[in-house]
Amino acid sequence: MTRQHIASAFDRDLEGVQAMIMKMGGLVEAQILDAALALETRDSELAEKVRRADRAIDEMELKVNEEAARLIALRAPQASDLRTALSVIKIAAALERVGDYCKNMAKRADVLSQMTNVPGAAGALRRMSKSVEVLLKDALDSYIQRDVQLAQDVRSRDKDIDQMYNALFREFLTYMMEDPRNITACMHLHFIAKNIERMGDHATGIAEQVIYLVTGSLPEDTRPKGESVMPADLGAGED
Question: Cα separation of 81 and 137, whole Å?
Fold first, then answer.
């Protein structure tokens, strides 16, 4: 087989894997919005749908990893082609983690539906979720388009998510201090907010992979972050 034929075969295989990544990304984007809607509307059926769909996301990640590994083994890509093959594995892993956070959010939505409503909290979390969904969409678009400028824009906007999280944390803390009966609900809401903030981190990680893919090196500057309002060990927010 000639080098040209090998290259064209690699490109065809890579297109297939990247199509899987985009399908996975679309499913994860829908999960973010559905999980937030389930929380706001106290819709237990929608929350269950989000939990069930997480299995499909896990299976897609496994399929992407298998195809990328086969691609590397059979085509022996060099330099930028190898970076491309490795990038899909890392992007699939990031999407799988976002899917896990959506599942956790749906679990807590069910618990919160049995508690007294904290005014405005669910709507604020839905708006934060929408911002993260847009961030993830732009990160994936930057990957498909190999758009470093868009990827850099995603990195810079991550601090907006951090600021939204910090504002919500302060609000939940105020509710807990005003009435101890709000503590349990506000703790669940805080963990959801932290999960959403971490979704933003994963979207930004995808953008950084795009920068690495195109330029051959990761960004040297520290990722812009909003000022933290709490100790790191209190912000785990992960089931």
Answer: 24
pLDDT digits (tens, 9 = 90+) for 28-79: 999 999 999 999 999 999 999 999 999 999 999 999 999 999 888 887 777 7
Alpha helices in the chain (DSSP H): 3-41, 44-75, 79-112, 121-145, 148-178, 183-215
Low-confidence ranges of the chain (pLDDT < 50): 1-3, 5-6, 231-237, 239
Nearest to 126 by CA among 54, 190, 40: 40
C-alpha 49/C-alpha 55 separation (Å) is 11
Question: CA-CA-CA-CA torsion for 45, 47, 51, 53, nearest 10 degrees?
Answer: 70
Residues in CB range of 149: below 8 A, 6 or more apart? none
Which distant-in-sequence residues (6+ apart) come within 8 Å of 59 by Cβ?
Answer: none
The residue written with tokens 């919500």 in the block is: 168
Q: What is the pLDDT of residue 21?
A: 95
Sign of CA dihedral 11, 14, 20, 24: negative
Short-list 194, 188, 207, 142, CA closest to 164: 194
- The owner of tokens 């509710």 is 175
DSSP sequence for 5-57: HHHHHHHHHHHHHHHHHHHHHHHHHHHHHHHHHHHHHT-HHHHHHHHHHHHHH
* The CA-based dihedral angle spanning residues 132, 133, 134, 139, taken in that order and rounded to the nearest 10 degrees: 90
